[in-house]
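$ fold --in a.seq
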Amino acid sequence: MSRERYEVTLLLAVLAVLGWSGWRPRDTFTWALEVAPAVIGIFVLLLTRRRFPLSRLVLGLIALHMGILMVGGHYTYAEVPAFDWLRDQLGLARNHYDRVGHFAQGFVPALIAREVLVRASCLRAGRLVGFLALCVAMAISAWYELLEWGVAATTGSAADAFLGTQGDPWDTQKDMLLAGIGALCALGLMARPHDRSLARLPD
């Protein structure tokens, strides 16, 4: 598949999920907050695709991450049906879909940061790049938690579904831990596939 066709396929898939997500979401305010990063990301990718095209691997992972955000936006993270079923089957205390979201929030940004560092700086792929990519992923996670807090402080109970703490006083810390684990998994497991995908980029 040509690169252009690959990009168009990903874009159409993301737009289809976005359309589904926005059709009668459980809470419109929460939906807007949850899908906003994905919508912003679509515009950023479209604006930069010529000057700084990303590798196929990273583009595919970004599309997957957008899908995770859109599913969470449609149902709210605490009420995704498949994870309600999983909670009931395993006797869990809560719906854990938000943990998947925060794992992805570390996994995908870590590889984006790695790609930018390898291609746009004097650094080579290695431990320093991995460490810096981890730092970027953790910084994004921290800023997102601050954003959640700011929205909740501004709007009050209207942001309860956006916070998604489900009564856990340590939810913020656990979210950041999951993002860190996601980033470490990405850097540890995907470095070689990422390097191969980078090598296929046009000069």
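$ fold --in b.seq
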Amino acid sequence: MHASHIPELDALIARGSPERRVKTLERMTAFFLDGASRFNDDHVRLFDLVFSRLIGEIETKARTELSRRLAPLGNAPVEAVRHLAQDDDIAVAGPLLMRAEGLSDTDLVDIAQSKGQAHLLAISARARIAAPVTDVLLRRGDHGVRHSVAANRGARLSDAGFCTLVERAKTDGVLAEAVLLRPDIPPRLFHDLLLTATDAVQRRLIASATPETPSEARGARAKVANEADAPAAPRDHSRAQRRIEALHQEGKLDEAILVDFAHKSQYEETVAALASLCAVPIEVVDRLMAAERSDPVLILCKSAGWAWSTAKAIIMVRPAGARTSSQDLDAIHADFDRLSPSTAQRVMRFWQVRPHHSGRTTDDGRT
């Protein structure tokens, strides 16, 4: 093929039958696919010119087939790809919107701003999506598009995008769960959504689920959200904190010391040591320890990589520990074994960034 053949192509487009145009496109597509890995930029640009001229003169079925075959190619002709991706028929545009590397962020933004929900949904399935694109998807997209973006780990979200998702998720329990599972959600928005969505998420608790399932991760975080915010009688930990700080300075503060405090029923020292070793504010640890459920203790211990024996000692020193039967301990032990470290670490990171004030503090700094 040579550029001198372009006049012949023009004549074909002007006077050739639809069948002949489709046949020509099929031959050119096969020729390109066969040598795509060897063609240089000049070759690709020439194919781009040929495809672009034929695209407007062929029926939907042929355009759809061309789109499907070009979508996985890293060096697919850019103008042809752009033209096909802007097609109103999602059967034509869809494969390229989902996969084509040649589409720029600007192309995707333009299409997301002007096309319908099917086109937006196709874009939301891309392996990588830049924040400017997801901003448009979340602003214009429907329920399905929002859920697709939230579940797509390759989709980068801006602060504005996350705010849009969080606001929508407050009235959509399934979306809330997907958003809470994203590792890149800002802590303040995680906190905001978790507290708002707790009732909906708690209905999906995972008493018997495996820890790797999404419901386990969501349930673990939801169950302890209210525990961390539950009011508790203020305690004076200052003496215990001084003792723990001294042990820390001497390099003697470790899991064994923590277990020793718990076995000796030294509650304040246990709380202070747990807070120091887990890098969680002591007032948060105090509220977690005073809660009725033992789940927060399991999460702290699992995230730190400690053994069940450590978790058991801490559970028993809690105010509610005296009411814990052997059957309760068996069930709690099973929960501890099922809890995944990754789930526990995500929840603990949430606790670690909570305000370090003894009073209740809002996200804007008011107490």
